[in-house]
Here is the input.
Amino acid sequence: MTATPILYHAVPSRSSVVRWMLEEIGQPYEIMPLDLKRGDQNTTEFRALNPMGKVPVLRHGATVISESAAICLYLAEAFPAAGLNVDTHDARRGAFLKWMFFGPSCIEPTLMDRAFPRMETPPTSAVGYGDAERVFDVICGGLENGPWLFGEQFTAADVVIGSGLRWGSLFNLVPQRPEIVAYVERLNERPALQRATALDQPPSA
Here is the structure.
């Protein structure tokens, strides 16, 4: 597909995850800025793209897709030359898909529960992620053969998992385990992430 990806983007928001992913791909893309305080996400036009009224949304030709992890997976497959995907026929594909969905289904709920504790702790069998210690144990186990989740290959899974850990670390929601701290430091050194972060900074006066 030769169409240029268009990202509906607001700063700060989860759409920054996708901007980082687009920078990792290294191909031209366009930004459609939204002002969430002004309510741009509630317009009829935007709700037609995402009835949830949330960013990110990516438009690529005739394809419209929301949810940051889903967009990252789509982009990894749509731009294979970037090397951010694990192919369907690769034995690692199962682990790759696990990590792609581990972010929104386990890491994010864990961080939200740590940020906003429940009045009563639910039984682990009732919570999709089980418990926080288990989540962080799994992450540390996945980094044993680093530097990335798939060894020397940096993938879209690192963008998804790394984004959650970076955000959680800013608010002391992630334990300072050596594996996680070192992983976040490596992520922060990636030129694509640095470019995406710089692009999201307000212009200097």
Summary: The longest strand covers residues 6-9. Strands lie at 6-9, 30-33, 57-60, 63-66. The helical segments are 15-25, 44-49, 68-78, 93-115, 132-142, 156-170, 178-188, 191-199.
